[in-house]
Specification:
By secondary structure, the chain is mainly α. It has 4 helices and no strands. Helix 1 packs antiparallel against helix 2, helix 2 crosses helix 3 and helix 3 packs across helix 4.
């Protein structure tokens, strides 16, 4: 799951392109883009369901994580989002709720 389909598709696309089979390389690139997009959407849905976050929140947290932390943001973005959700749910961070903070 960490490496993903790119470990297969990228070398295959490069090999096809360098051996003169450009049309095949373009087809592979389209398949790779489709697989990557579908994988990103389904992973966001699965992760969101497991931790109780909306899939859009997961995608946004990954995007913002990458913007702020670079490659490590793929991990840090969702972790920070999950931490914030837990703090809001427990009442430690009383924003977006009517609950009063616990003392």
């Amino acid at each position: 799951p960490i490496v993903g389909p790119g470990a297969l598709y990228v070398p295959w696309i490069l090999y096809a392109a360098f051996t003169g089979r450009l049309w095949f390389a373009v087809k592979l690139l389209i398949v790779y883009a489709t697989v990557s997009a579908l994988r990103q959407m389904t992973e966001s849905k699965v992760v969101g369901d497991q931790v109780g976050l909306h899939p859009l929140a997961v995608l946004l947290s990954i995007y913002l994580g990458i913007k702020f932390f670079g490659a490590l943001g793929v991990v840090f973005g969702p972790l920070i989002t999950i931490l914030l959700k837990a703090m809001i749910t427990s009442g430690l961070l009383p924003i977006f709720t009517d609950a009063k903070p616990k003392r």
